[in-house]
Amino acid sequence: MKKILLTLMAAWLSVAVAFAAEPSFRDDVPERYTVKEGDTLWDISAMFLQDPWLWPEIWEANPQIPNPHLIYPGDVIAMVYVDGKPRLTIERNGVSSGSAAANRAAPARSADGRTVVLTPSIKKVPNDRAIPALPLDAINNFLTRIRLVAEGELESAPYVVAGHEKKLIGGEGDDFYVRGALQPGVDFYGIYRKGDPYIDKETKELLGLKAEDIGSGQVKKVDGEVATIAATRSVREIRIGDRLLPHEERRLDSAFFPVAPDADVKGKIISVEGGVTQVGYLDVVAINRGERDGLEVGNLLGIFKAGEQVQDRVAGDLITLPSERAGMLMVFRAYEKMSFGLVLHADRPLAVDDEVANP
């Protein structure tokens, strides 16, 4: 009897796990949706699924179209059934994964009476028109303003030693002088000023240093250890002591699916851009977990408010209530020790030191 009960329990657990793993569609899910300019993968995932990070599990790639994992304005997201389970697929230019046109060639007659075979042709769409995973407008400003550097990287970089005609500050169109070893063959540099460090409050580990964008410059000439630089762009005044680093490619590859991390990630929000402590919708936040912890670009994390401590009036002691999920963020930049994420959903006011974990 005991063996029978154990067998039934094991079978029930396997069914329960399989059921729990099956993504749940929203009650108001549309059968078809035409993608529009301004849509993001997060918007569309949240339109169809109760848990948007399970999108890859319900996506049925259409083998009849190029780049079936990229979604463009004008594409149609349609619900289909595969082995009796609902899945989502894409229709582009009238070609669907189940259409006769997509699956077989059509005979026709040419003007001279010959029989020819017509196959469906598909208009190629440039990859850069694909909708992004998250609203890029919300992070483009951050990407241009902030650069993360390693300890000692700024201190060893060339620095502004003087302005033209002994000016103490300069701006776009001005020449200034730089002392230090420039990289051979590199003519364009970013101009930076040391910002605040990112520190893990619990371990006191230095996770990275913020280099604040001041402007850009181009090398005009080099005379020994001093170079003349022309300021080609400035967002703030260029001062003596500002540092130069070679320009880095900071373009964001946004063609990825929102997905939960493979690893079990638990961390905290350590800062929010703008020098405030409160966090809200579409704010950029820094978290104290990175690539070494299993995080990747596109990972979705829940934001949790720590449970309050309350007095148990029966037992007479203090207990901590469970943490509650209060928002969601998506990682758009992952470094070794830390990451930057964009808050995509907030049920209530969030703050620095709130917990982040798998959704």
Quick description:
By secondary structure, this protein is mainly β. The protein has helices at 2-21, 41-48, 55-58, 100-103, 137-145; strands at 32-34, 76-82, 85-91, 106-109, 115-118, 146-149, 159-163, 169-170, 175-179, 188-199, 206-223, 226-234, 238-239, 243-246, 266-272, 278-279, 284-287, 300-305, 309-311, 318-320, 324-334, 339-346, 350-351, 355-357. Strand 10 and strand 11 (206-223) form a beta hairpin.
> Considering DSSP H and I runs of 4 or more, what fraction of the residues is helical?
10-25%
Q: Give a quick account of the main beta sheet: strands, pairing sense, barrel closure.
A: 7 strands, antiparallel
Count of discrete alpha- or pi-helical segments spanning 4 or more residues:
5
CATH architecture of the largest domain: Beta Barrel
Return Rg in Å. 27 Å
Q: Structural class per helix/strand content?
A: mainly beta
Number of domains: 3
Shape: flat
Mean pLDDT: 82
Approximate strand percentage:
35-45%
Query: What fold name goes in the CATH topology slot of the largest domain?
Result: Thrombin, subunit H
Helix and strand succession? HEHHEEHEEHEEEEEEEEEEEEEEEEEEE
- Please give the CATH class of the largest domain: Mainly Beta
Number of strands: 24
What is the first-to-last residue Cα distance? 40 Å
